[in-house]
Design brief:
Layout (H helix, E strand, L loop, with lengths): L2 H7 L7 H12 L6 E7 L4 H8 L20 E8 L9 E3 L13 H11 L2 E3 L11 E4 L9 H5 L3 E4 L2 E4 L2
Amino acid sequence: MDALTLQRIKTAHPTIREKLLKDYTDANNLLGKGARLRFAYVYRSVAEQDALFNKRPKVTNAKGGQSIHNYGLAFDIVLLYDNDGNGTFEEASWSMIRDFDKDSKADWMEVTNFFKSRGWEWGGDWKRFKDAPHFQLKKPNGTSYRWQELRISKTFVDSGLIYPIL
């Protein structure tokens, strides 16, 4: 398990933290020795989102307030690899085809298919701006949360972060 990811899960919307931790643990356990799942982002402030929006080359279409991360309902993944077997996980990878554990399944797609099976929406399935590291919570009825709805929701504060009432 990745200590940084465990800290980031604590910034997720309080109503999904337990599910997210369970799903992370189960997904991480799919990976063989020498591979580890990390959440690069979970909650992202509006200022952090704006900084990403202004980055070049372009990494997001969402301005501050327009990302599901801004509401604690999304996470981005990266895979870490311990190439020399010393336990330091010296490589971060976004490769969708690498099969580090040689089980004939790409590590990225193993994790992706697992999260999708647990009800997470995958940014790699999007038509306009494919975002392969991105996953976000779906509503109980299976539809997507929209930032326009979340932005005008009543809110509450937990550990200094503002979340919408779902």
